[in-house]
TrEMBL record:
This is Dolichyl-diphosphooligosaccharide-protein glycosyltransferase subunit OST5. Subunit of the oligosaccharyl transferase (OST) complex that catalyzes the initial transfer of a defined glycan (Glc(3)Man(9)GlcNAc(2) in eukaryotes) from the lipid carrier dolichol-pyrophosphate to an asparagine residue within an Asn-X-Ser/Thr consensus motif in nascent polypeptide chains, the first step in protein N-glycosylation. N-glycosylation occurs cotranslationally and the complex associates with the Sec61 complex at the channel-forming translocon complex that mediates protein translocation across the endoplasmic reticulum (ER). All subunits are required for a maximal enzyme activity. It comes from Pisolithus tinctorius Marx 270. It is a multi-pass membrane protein. Belongs to the OST5 family. GO terms for cellular component: oligosaccharyltransferase complex. The chain crosses the membrane at residues 24-43, 55-79. GO terms for biological process: protein N-linked glycosylation. InterPro entries: TMEM258/Ost5 (IPR007915). It is found in: Membrane. Pfam families: Ost5. The keyword Transmembrane helix applies. Component of the oligosaccharyltransferase (OST) complex.
Length: 80
């Protein structure tokens, strides 16, 4: 394939459209990061005799925090 063929193919493709509207990203970030904060508080009140529950709460808080930070960055224009 030469450059002109690839350029024609590229120009014929539809533009990118995200699955989640960018106007919802601040609210998603708020919900996810608030949930992370609440789970971190809950984690600090757990008895140290339940390691499985501690691990589950910590993993959930970590995942929610990770997605919340990405949503927050994307909502302010830093697309990661």
């Amino acid at each position: 394939m030469d450059y002109a063929t690839i350029q024609t193919l590229h120009n014929s493709l539809p533009s990118f459209s995200p699955y989640v509207p960018t106007s919802l990203l601040p609210f998603i970030a708020l919900i996810l990061l608030s949930s992370t904060f609440a789970l971190a508080f809950y984690f600090s009140t757990l008895p140290k005799t339940a390691p499985i529950r501690e691990l589950g709460v910590a993993l959930l808080a970590s995942v929610l925090g990770g997605f919340g930070v990405v949503a927050l960055f994307c909502s302010v224009g830093v697309y990661v």
